[in-house]
Design a protein that fits this description.
Layout (H helix, E strand, L loop, with lengths): L13 H15 L3 H21 L2 H14 L1 H16 E6 L2 E15 L7 E2 L2 H14 L6 E4 L2 E2 L9 H17 L18 E13 L17 H19 L4 E4 L3 E2 H28 L6 E8 L6 E8 L7 E6 L16 H11 L4 E9 L12 E2 L5 E2 L16
Helix pairs in contact: 1-2, 1-3, 1-4, 2-4, 2-6, 3-4, 4-6, 5-7
């Protein structure tokens, strides 16, 4: 195995090295039987690392493979996520499979998007609608009584696994979840951002998890489940999100739900930015300029969009458009099939016509004081987005 990968600058730990070797073997496998063999080896090792909270070994292996073998990286990333967000537990002599479910909510506002504790009765009502419209009839659920922002979600595989472990016994036994939610970080104030409900969903081993998996179900289509979930949960979620417009995505496994929410929130961030500048500074969309910069260390990992008043160099607002697996930072701004072209299309749909793009790949940098991203201005300098001194103060300053 060692001959297939470059020697790292810093020696990998024994656990990380074995993860790398087994992931390389899995990616090179030529049959489903061999796949199952290596997946079993990897699953057992990942499970032990998660149990011990050894996130550093998983991160080191992923980082090494990302630089040296992208196929093996994807194999390890997929299996690590699956092991973190699912578990098998025994209850009263029966085996239960438990999944950490995320229910994404795409919210935008002119003010602040709430997050925080959900009262018991409201949490029970949301759980009931999930069971009635999304989950299989035999599914049991334990909903975390909290509306999570991105900043408050579990940050890595070990934290996801830990949260699932705390919720799983509540799910199979029907007990009320008991979570310590006092020390969650504060939510960053942004105009458009996902919110999440998190729940552990338990089903008898080998049983259907979702309504669309059940034969003869009235909700055989995912789209019908989503429509029902939207219709029935919207009045309840409106109480949690006053002053916000929002849409709901189909609840699904934790990692895929978070990725999908991150993708779908991006157009809302640009729309909300333009709306905010209109409302706060009385700028019409045609009076707003957008400067797009590509940021990353070796390739484009994200675009940062800086907004200025037309004809002015000062950056007054900015949003980040991250790229995800399968998205390429290469391409022309006129091609709607690549992210840069999609940004251009969304900005023009908002009424912004003056759009420029820096061709150089810029190193991502952040404000040393507040940690927010720095944006590139029209002259090519990295700057902090700052609202004018005379901007109205009755609305929160988002940057």
């Amino acid at each position: 195995m060692a001959g297939l990968r470059s020697k790292p600058k810093q020696r990998l730990s024994s656990d990380a090295d074995q993860l790398v070797g087994q992931a390389l073997a899995l990616s090179a496998s030529g049959s489903r039987l061999e796949d199952a063999f290596w997946e079993g080896k990897l699953s057992a090792r990942i499970s032990q690392l998660l149990k011990n909270g050894s996130q550093a070994s998983i991160d080191a292996a992923l980082d090494h493979l990302y630089r040296h073998n992208i196929d093996a990286y994807e194999a390890l990333a997929e299996l690590s996520q699956a092991m973190a967000e699912s578990i098998t537990v025994e209850h009263e002599g029966a085996q239960w499979q438990v999944l950490l479910l995320a229910c994404p909510i795409l919210a935008h506002t002119r003010y602040a998007i709430p997050s925080g504790t959900i009262k018991g009765e409201l949490a029970l009502s949301l759980s009931a609608h999930l069971r009635a419209h999304v989950l299989a009839h035999d599914a049991r659920i334990a909903l975390a009584p909290y509306l999570y922002s991105i900043d408050q979600l579990p940050r890595n595989h070990a934290e996801v696994s830990s949260l699932l472990g705390r919720l799983s016994l509540s799910a199979v036994s029907g007990a009320t979840p008991k979570l310590d939610l006092k020390d969650l970080p504060e939510t960053a104030p942004v105009l458009a951002d996902p919110r999440y409900l998190l729940a552990a969903v338990a089903v008898p081993a080998g049983g259907a998890l979702y309504r669309w998996q059940e034969e003869g179900s009235d909700y055989a289509e995912r789209s019908a489940c989503l429509d029902q979930w939207r219709d029935q949960s919207r009045p309840l979620l409106s109480m949690l999100l006053p002053g916000c417009e929002f849409d709901l995505l189909l609840p699904d496994a934790f990692f895929i739900s978070c990725r999908e929410a991150d993708r779908q929130i991006r157009p809302l961030t640009t729309q909300s930015a333009v709306n905010y500048l209109q409302a706060t500074l009385s700028l019409s969309p045609v009076g707003i300029s957008a400067v797009i910069g590509s940021f990353g260390e070796e390739r484009t990992d994200e675009y940062r969009i800086a907004f200025t008043a037309k004809g002015d160099r000062d950056v007054i607002y900015g949003v980040v458009w991250p790229l995800y697996n399968g998205e390429d930072g290469k391409g022309d701004i006129g091609d709607r099939n690549n992210p840069l072209g999609q940004i251009n299309e969304h900005l023009r749909a908002c009424g912004v016509e003056d759009i420029s793009v820096h061709s150089a790949l810029l190193e991502p940098d952040y404000c040393e004081d507040c940690g927010t991203p720095l944006y590139v201005d029209r002259a090519g300098e990295l700057v902090h987005a700052e609202m004018p001194d005379d901007a109205p103060s009755q609305q929160p300053l988002f940057h």
